[in-house]
């Protein structure tokens, strides 16, 4: 088995939350990088790229959840989930990934749902990369602060801790994770 699957999501357009400017660009760059190795040989075959740069290409929380479910349901060598966009935190320390239609942030996709899908996946290696506010909550055990729960075969990379906001650098069309990785 040498299947490598990826879902790459970048959301700049939000109906009710502040518009972002670098997430679509980052997602396109990540998808391009995943397609082939430095020597030009094939790496991930056709990463599933989802970008929202306007109302016509909006990505709902249901779209995000469906894409993650499809990614993690099959056995593969690697299943990689990448999200760049708004993230939020509620009063009970639950983290969320925001779809284009989200109004308050805590009406998005629960990070715990994404992590549960990845943990239960038959994929050998599961990679979750989150460039959003409060994305550090992704590895926390439900209901327990400061306790990470990452299983063997899981890699999680986040742009912020559970309590931090991520940010865009004005004038730079890149979200925070890419900015820090390249500077």
Largest sheet: 5 strands, parallel
Number of domains: 1
Number of helices: 4
CATH topology: Rossmann fold
User: How would you spell out the order of helices and strands?
Assistant: EHEHEEEEHEEH
Mean pLDDT: 84
Structural class based on helices, strands and sheet pairing? alpha/beta
What's the N-to-C terminus distance?
36 Å
- Cα radius of gyration in angstroms: 15 Å
Count all strands and give the number: 8
Name of the CATH first level: Alpha Beta
Q: What amount of the residues lies in strands?
A: 15-25%
What is the spatial order of strands in the main beta sheet? Answer: 2-1-3-7-8
Contiguous runs where pLDDT drops below 50 for at least 5 residues: 176-183
Dominant shape: globular
Task: Give me the CATH architecture, please.
Answer: 3-Layer(aba) Sandwich
| Fraction of residues in helix | 10-25%
Protein name: Caspase family protein
InterPro entries: Caspase-like_dom_sf, Caspase-related_regulators, Pept_C14_caspase
Domain Peptidase C14 caspase: 3-156
Pfam families: Peptidase_C14
Give a written overview of the molecule.
It is built from four helices and eight strands; from the N terminus they run βαβαββββαββα. It is α/β, with parallel strands linked by helices and 183 residues long. The protein has a single domain (4-177), classed as Rossmann fold (3-Layer(aba) Sandwich), CATH 3.40.50.1460. Strands 2-1-3-7-8 form a five-stranded parallel β-sheet, with helices on both faces. It has a three-stranded antiparallel β-sheet with strand order 4-5-6. Strand 4 (87-89) and strand 5 (95-97) form a beta hairpin. Helix 2 (61-73) runs parallel beside helix 3 (111-120). The longest helix has 13 residues, at 23-35. It comes from Pararhodobacter zhoushanensis. Pfam families: Peptidase_C14 (PF00656). Residues 3-156 form the Peptidase C14 caspase domain. This is Caspase family protein.
């Amino acid at each position: 088995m040498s299947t490598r699957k990826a879902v790459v999501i970048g959301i700049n357009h939000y109906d009710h939350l502040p518009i972002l400017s670098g997430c679509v660009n980052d997602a396109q760059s990540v998808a391009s990088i995943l397609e082939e190795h430095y020597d030009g040989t094939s790496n991930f075959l056709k990463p599933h790229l989802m970008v929202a740069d306007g109302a016509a290409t909006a990505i709902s929380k249901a779209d995000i959840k469906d894409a993650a479910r499809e990614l993690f349901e099959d056995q593969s060598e690697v299943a990689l989930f990448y999200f760049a966009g708004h993230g939020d935190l509620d009063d009970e320390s639950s983290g969320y990934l925001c779809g284009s239609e989200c109004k308050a942030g805590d009406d998005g996709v629960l990070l715990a749902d994404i992590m549960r899908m990845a943990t239960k996946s038959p994929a050998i290696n599961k990679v979750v990369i989150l460039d959003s506010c409060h994305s550090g909550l992704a590895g926390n055990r439900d209901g327990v602060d400061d306790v990470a729960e990452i299983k063997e075969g899981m890699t999680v990379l986040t742009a912020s801790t559970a309590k931090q906001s991520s940010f865009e650098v004005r004038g730079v069309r890149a979200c925070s994770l890419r900015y820090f990785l390249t500077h």
